[in-house]
UniProtKB/TrEMBL annotation:
<dbReference type="Pfam" id="PF21302">
    <property type="entry name" value="Zn_ribbon_RlmA"/>
</dbReference>
<dbReference type="InterPro" id="IPR048647">
    <property type="entry name" value="RlmA_N"/>
</dbReference>
<feature type="binding site">
    <location>
        <position position="9"/>
    </location>
    <ligand>
        <name>Zn(2+)</name>
    </ligand>
</feature>
<dbReference type="InterPro" id="IPR016718">
    <property type="entry name" value="rRNA_m1G-MeTrfase_A_prd"/>
</dbReference>
<feature type="binding site">
    <location>
        <position position="26"/>
    </location>
    <ligand>
        <name>Zn(2+)</name>
    </ligand>
</feature>
<feature type="binding site">
    <location>
        <position position="22"/>
    </location>
    <ligand>
        <name>Zn(2+)</name>
    </ligand>
</feature>
<feature type="binding site">
    <location>
        <begin position="94"/>
        <end position="95"/>
    </location>
    <ligand>
        <name>S-adenosyl-L-methionine</name>
    </ligand>
</feature>
<keyword id="KW-0808">Transferase</keyword>
<keyword id="KW-0479">Metal-binding</keyword>
<feature type="binding site">
    <location>
        <position position="181"/>
    </location>
    <ligand>
        <name>S-adenosyl-L-methionine</name>
    </ligand>
</feature>
<protein>
    <submittedName>
        <fullName>23S rRNA (Guanine745-N1)-methyltransferase</fullName>
    </submittedName>
</protein>
<dbReference type="InterPro" id="IPR041698">
    <property type="entry name" value="Methyltransf_25"/>
</dbReference>
<keyword id="KW-0489">Methyltransferase</keyword>
<dbReference type="GO" id="GO:0008168">
    <property type="term" value="F:methyltransferase activity"/>
</dbReference>
<feature type="domain" description="Methyltransferase">
    <location>
        <begin position="88"/>
        <end position="170"/>
    </location>
</feature>
<dbReference type="Pfam" id="PF13649">
    <property type="entry name" value="Methyltransf_25"/>
</dbReference>
<dbReference type="GO" id="GO:0032259">
    <property type="term" value="P:methylation"/>
</dbReference>
Amino acid sequence: MLSLVCPLCQQPLQAEDRQWRCSTGHNFDQARQGYLNLLPVQHKRSRQPGDTPGMLDCRQAFLDAGHYLPVSERINQLLQQGQPHQLLDIGCGEGWYSARLQQALPDTEMAGLDISKEAILRACRRSRQIQWLVGSSARLPVADASVDALLCVFSPWFAGECRRVLRPGGRLLLVGPHEDHLLSLRQRLYDRVNPTPDLLGELPEGFGIVSDELLRYPLSLPATDLANLIGMTPHSFRSHPERQQALIESGLADLQVAMRLLLLQRH
């Protein structure tokens, strides 16, 4: 189990039955579903932060259909290389990548964190072997230098926090879109396709690059799965519904996955 700290005062948390307490008197109840909510109200930027239930429904259906299996397999291979004892999946969503990674690393103590309580509730139904946390990636409720590996798939990350919680030699795997990712989809949904933000930008202080690779493969989707792909992304509310429906009805023959996997190591 990961070494957790209080999100209010950063003192170590200790479990007492189904309650977690710090030395200053803050306490947090573990939910009956198994997760621990370490996101104080004052750290929320909205009433229900994170993805909407509709987006989660679409993502769960799309991932369960296996369309991103090659991505998951490569994530597992890259993280197996370091043989981590403790691993945290930042922005784990409903836990699809985390659960598959836990199967590949059965001896690793694994936790998944997401700002969405609804996502974590779904993650609890995926696996009871993983420590599920509601929390913010901007304020990771994890002790300094206590984690061997971090995973971040299509989610915000903060270099200072990642550096703080990783042990020296610990690894951070970032997974995000290359500029060509789902390009034909974006070209059909918008008059102008905006550039894809760089996954890394400048290399943050305290990290070195272990590997940097591009995973590319074609994606052939029936109408239902194409609708789920659109529905699980911001395209669902940024693009016109009429364009979405026309694209779902016509299909898309030249769709391609292009994901960048960047493995960093803390000095």
